Amino acid sequence: MTRLTLAILVLLTAAAAGQTPGTVPPQPGNPPWRCGEKTYCTQMTSCEEAMFHFRTCGVVRLDGDRDGVPCERLCGGGRSTRRR
Fold this sequence. Notes:
Blueprint: H1 3-16, H2 47-56, H3 72-75
């Protein structure tokens, strides 16, 4: 099988499965988010998503009071002990 034929076969298989080539469907242990897509808490839909972007992607702005809990409204960080 030539490379071109193989590439076409991969594209057709992905299209039939409703996926775009190069994407991996969400599975246990494989988060459905990617780094670089979201950078603000208002873009997050869950605490798990906020934690992923904070810990895995290093988006430190999600933790405005620097208490280790990103997106306080989503993750219920409670009151911070940091003085304002």
